[in-house]
Amino acid sequence: MTYARVGNAVSKEHQVLTLETGKLSWRMIECGVPHFPHSNSVCINGVLYYKAKLNGSCLTGDMMIMSFDVRSEKYSLIKVMEPFIDAVRHATTLVNYNGKLASIRESECSYFRRENTSFEMWVLNDLMVQAYLQTASDVGGGDVTGGVFLHCVGVTDSNEVVLANHSLDGPFYVFYYCLESETIRRVEIQGLGAFRGFRVYTFVDHVEDVKLLKGVLGL
């Protein structure tokens, strides 16, 4: 999916690319909510959710959540009101939590470190009511993170919050924090020495073959 960008203005034009065997097909689709896609996205049961700016520009507009149904190719707006507006702040990450849309934010700052090991999570219980529940968790005190800056990159099917660094400055670790047991484990990713100093993008539920997308999207 793409969108037209003119300067910092919100977009009214959107396109969808259909992946088929030996054929790529771009086409325009209608969207009744002019917006500027912003930050990360997450796909849940064939619906893509992402944060977006409305009513202005990508710099000054109101931050809300847009959804795009892959099957019907329809857009919808999830308007987040006070006191839950923090759920769509810039530093939050949209995740799939038990099949529901959720948002995670590191408490007090935009990363996890030894001085800051707690986070807040909002779970969207009903897309019609648009009510959020807020919970707070602590990934453990002390020097669990080794002093590196960690960011939330997603949640696994077993409800483990995945934390990783955005840069490769030494040994690279991925941390898994279990929401049920409130325990954390660390996994070292080896073989990255040649990429020291590079930016790292970490993905949850990675799919290597696009032929599997049909099953992933629930089509």
TrEMBL record:
This is F-box associated beta-propeller type 3 domain-containing protein. NCBIfam families: F_box_assoc_1. It comes from the Eukaryota. It comes from Brassica cretica. Pfam families: FBA_3 (PF08268). InterPro entries: F-box-assoc_dom_typ3 (IPR013187), F-box-assoc_interact_dom (IPR017451). Residues 9-207 form the F-box associated beta-propeller type domain. Coiled coil: none annotated.
